[in-house]
Amino acid sequence: MREALFVKQNSNKWEIYEQMQVKHPDELAERFIEITDDLAFSKTFYPKSKTTAYLNGLAARLHQSLYINKKEQTSRFVTFWKLELPLIFYEYRKQLLYAFIFFITFVVIGAFSAAKDDTFVRLILGDAYVDMTNANIDKGDPFGVYKKMDPFMMFLMIAVNNIKVSCFAFLLGILCSVGTVVLLMYNGIMLGSFQYYFFSKGLGLASVMVIWVHGTLEIAAIILSGAAGLILGNSLLFPGTYTRLISFKRGGKDGVKIIIGLVPIFIAAALLESFVTRHTEMPTWLSGLILMGSLVFLIWYVIIYPRKILKNSALNGKY
Fold first, then answer.
1. Cα dist. 102→92, 181, 200, 276 in Å?
2. CA-based angle 137:143:147, to the nearest 5?
3. Sign of dihedral through CA atoms 235, 238, 244, 246?
4. pLDDT tens, residue by residue, 191-228
5. Which residue ranges run through the membrane (predicted)?
6. Fewest beta carbons within 10 Å, which of 12, 136, 216, 260?
7. Around Cβ 131, how many Cβ atoms within 10 Å?
8. HSE-up of 204 (CA within 13 Å, CB side)?
9. Cα separation of 141 and 135, whole Å?
10. Among 188, 220, 228, 226, which residue's Cα sits nearest to residue 299?
């Protein structure tokens, strides 16, 4: 069957299913089964088409709606992190990828600029920070900045600041995504110049093993917050089959869920930075274990686990 004919035969049904106006869970389950059947057909005959991508997203939303409406013994709190948030990550995987690409591009720009201009690091990080770090390097304690403050007060300050940054990254998306990209640019260039500074001092590996103990979670959460901002902005720019208002409400709701879901990650990053990173003398294997553990968790929870949920649901065809 030609793709155009396949779309023509099913487009009305898909549009109705998009509205999610179903009261009975059994009807919702039937819709999900039908959509997964259409998705399987589309993946077989049009694997890289826009139709397949569209059906992927619709299947994710139906699955998410089904689990929200299903009567379960587990609390709503558990269901949110176990099912709802991972499925949002899957549905908006393109925005996650764009946020990652934007951020990494700006990190490279920051590092390249720092390498080409000796004054760039001071411009971005400030004279006070650079002078303090140079003094710490001369003392043989290049990461002494993490030891100066009381751990608990440091934790509170960092946690609040990180949550504030994530909220800004999301809310700035209302400026048609441009505001979010600017915030990602600012943080990406800062990270690139910051990391280059330590490499230029011969402390590249040491900085990775110390700073990224907490930085892995912190930077990943900033990127995910940027994705939430892109979701909000794109809901205005590209409403698709929805009215612009409905699309904006939907994008805003899903973006807020991502920000809420990131709060534990920001808190964990603040705890690590305040109570663990200060132990700069810790064995390399231990800091590497924390770093890699954080990275593996993020890859699993944001990328692998959501796909596993949908795959298992499609295979079982029941809930």
1. 16, 7, 24, 30
2. 125
3. negative
4. 999 999 999 999 999 999 999 999 999 999 999 999 99
5. 96-115, 152-184, 219-238, 258-276, 282-303
6. 12
7. 11
8. 7
9. 9
10. 220
